[in-house]
Amino acid sequence: MKKMIKGLLVTVLATTLLAGCGNNANNAESTNEGASGGGEAKSVKLKMFIAQPRFKEHYDKYIADFVAKEKAEKNIDVSVQLEMPTADNAAQILKTRLASNDAPDIFALHAINEIPSYYKAGYLEDLSDQPFVGKLLDSVKPSVTTTDGKVVALPLETLSWGYLYNKKIFTELGLTPPTTLTEMKAVVEKLKSNNVTPFVLSYKEAWIPQLVLPLAAGAIINTKDKDFIERMNKDEGSFTEMKEMFDIFDLINANGTEKATEVGGDDGAAAFAAGKGAMWLQGPWYAETILKSNPDLDFGVAPLPINDDPNATLINLSASTSLAVSKTTKNKEVALDFMNYVLDDTASNGFFQALKFNPLASVHTYESYPWVNDATAYVKEGKSYQDPAIPQAVKDEVGKGLQAYYAGQISQDDVLKALDKAWKSYNKVNK
């Protein structure tokens, strides 16, 4: 998820445990005596790269628990260096790291957008034989499985999303989520007539405005342009076919909070939690941050209308943030231990629940959240689609383009031409 963000890397030494015989836990070299129950402890430094800085507190705690478990069960002293850059900067930083043979042992990537190209480049360790794989739900496993049948990542976030809306405001004004663009315009007018700002705008981070692209593309591909992705991959399509995404984007922008390019995701969450806008172009992955600001907020998830075809108003189903192990890691044993600990039979429940992530494994027994149930109701009615496989480079380009478009610096056609160019460049590299 640029110009406005200076994106300093946040490097956190999550936990360092030192044990016997003068071993230094920061030394990646290992002794040969690491068995539990005696002997000199083995020291391992594990590097992790996860672009979710808002969850730092939860990761720190979970990593500390893992470190204690490795020490108790295997007599391994593990220190973890955790980098948590912003989403806007993470993809480019990680690509540079991987290309320069400086790969983290464990890193986060987007399951749909990035696994195909990262796997083709040889960056991902095959995890197919790991215990956690057998715990993944059948509906989730395909998202981290390659075309040749290998599981190469562990999913953290599975998503059912569209936009967020304040249920209290909607109920008080007798509103229901609209099913067409015309109905959305009526909702906007009703909100404005009652002195309620319709939308929270938060475009400081480019990944937020780009959310309109997968929503629009998914709706249009599902209803009238089914081979769009295939044709774009052959340099035979154009984003001019997606131009109607500007209809809803313009409506949102004309009826939103001020100074959007100065407001990032966390500030947007706080504004939404405070009722400063009735809707927010955002997904439920911000639930933890929203509820931290206002634990009593009652919010829901609904599909975003793109046009006046109600059949195109659909929930986006996706698996996004996932963890992978570097093919070149020198700490494979400990890296794999951590991956399996992420879906530990007991500890995993509390971790995923604290992050407000959806249950995605057989070991997850906690109840789904109300906003998840909202989205699931649409899915059960057949009103959903699988997140379109748009290259990450294209999503990065649309984010920057829509920031500039919102600021009045470029036109709709400029944005669309830039997206066509970005996809063609992607094709040249990946063919």
UniProtKB/TrEMBL annotation:
Keyword entries, A-Z: Signal, Transport
Record-linked InterPro entries: Bact_solute-bd_prot1, SBP
Top-level taxonomic group: Bacteria
Classification via Gene3D superfamilies: Periplasmic binding protein-like II
Signal peptide location: 1-19
Pfam family for this entry, one: SBP_bac_1
SUPFAM superfamilies: Periplasmic binding protein-like II
Protein family per UniProt: Belongs to the bacterial solute-binding protein 1 family.
Annotated protein name in UniProt: Raffinose/stachyose/melibiose transport system substrate-binding protein
Organism: Paenibacillus endophyticus
Organism lineage string: Bacteria, Bacillati, Bacillota, Bacilli, Bacillales
